[in-house]
Amino acid sequence: MEADHVARTVSAWLGKKIPAEWFAGLPEVLVDAEEMLVIGTLPEAADGGLETGDGAPSPSSGMADLARIKRFREETRQRRMRIAAEAEHRFGRKVSWGAVCGDQRALFTTLSVPVMTRLRLRERASRRSALKALIPAKPAPAAG
């Protein structure tokens, strides 16, 4: 299956599995041949986030966002692991998770592939695209 089609299929499937309160909307799903990366945006805090008296975000709001991501990771770990195991069985790819809160983004466990060691999914995809651009297309066979 093509990566975009797989991503849409996985996204629809996850929409039925992930509790609605986890994310503000459907998570972003990125797919390559080895991995599915699921990144959800956490809903806004009940207090609307920390602000200074003039309405600007406080300097500590980034730390508060990271703390919310950490808390989400810990509180949802068991359920995410069950969903991931089911998805890995169904789609034949490892599942990695991440979350976005405010300006902060954190990826939890992600797959490193031996051929491109320590490259994340987006980095692997950009490298593949660059390699494809460098490799000339095969000439069409001469009409005989």
Written description of the protein model:
β3 (94-101) and β4 (104-107) form a beta hairpin. The model has no long low-confidence stretch (mean pLDDT 79). The chain is built from 3 helices and 4 strands. It has one domain (3-134). The two termini are 34 Å apart. The chain is 42% helix and 16% strand. The chain has a 4-stranded mixed β-sheet. It is of the alpha+beta class.
SSE map:
Layout: H1 3-17, E1 28-31, E2 35-41, H2 61-91, E3 94-101, E4 104-107, H3 121-134
Parallel strand pairs: 2-3
Antiparallel strand pairs: 1-2, 3-4
Rg computed from alpha carbons, rounded to a whole number of angstroms: 19 Å
Beta-strand content estimate:
15-25%
Structural class determined from secondary elements: alpha+beta
- Order of strands in the sheet with the most strands? 1-2-3-4
Described by strand count, sense and barrel closure, the largest sheet is:
4 strands, mixed
Distance between the termini: 34 Å
| Number of DSSP helical runs | 3
Proportion of residues in helical segments: 40-55%
Q: If you average the pLDDT, what whole number results? A: 79
| C-alpha geometry | globular
Order of helical and strand elements:
HEEHEEH
- Give a count of the beta strands, DSSP E runs of length 2 or more: 4
pLDDT < 50 stretches: none
Domains, number: 1
Supply the key terms.
alpha+beta; globular; 4-stranded mixed beta sheet; 3 helices; 144 residues; 4 strands
Short summary of the structure?
The chain is α+β, with helices and mostly antiparallel strands and 144 residues long. The chain has three helices and four strands. Strands 1-2-3-4 form a four-stranded mixed β-sheet.
